[in-house]
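Quick one, T. Sequence first:
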Amino acid sequence: MVSFLLVGSIALTILQVAQMDVAYVLLFDMWSKSIKNTFIAPIHSRHLIFGSLFFGIMRGSVVFAILASISFYLFDFRFQAGGLIPPLIFLAGVFSMAAIIGITVCISILTFGQKADVAAWSLSGLILLFSGIYYPVDVLPFFLQVLARAIPLTYFLEYYRSIFIPGPHHLAVGLSLAALYLLLGLILFDRAIRRARRTGILLWLSE
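Structure tokens:
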């Protein structure tokens, strides 16, 4: 039970740290009314996402190291119990989920303007709520279980927990969903940028 909760707590913290780095790529510009300047620069949308994600990964990795150390000394939780591959896959899954959430926030900003900053604070919480951070997905009502199974993080949590608490997991499904959502997110983000330029939203969000 301790391992179950610790894995969830670590995932929650890392996800929130990393996804905000991606979301901030447009949130800060929106708050400062300078979002048009970001898109004047000769860079592609993927540069914005992966550049900010890089810093999210760096910060998230530091957070993971700190939390793993604290968990070891306080609860004898050994994050590398199954070797180094499982935690690396787990982190890759959490970071990919952070990128997906961050991209969704950026798309929302370019679509709905300042109202979208609510998504930055609520979206990750909703996803964590349905993906079984502190409880098994099986305890959720059936329709929420279906929703949980559409979230990649659910599978990465199950995979990493299976190292400490033997049980089934479907890692391949999580990896496939994460790759699909990332690709779809990048395509939609690029389209949102073109639409924002065409409709004048970039100027509306700038001074």
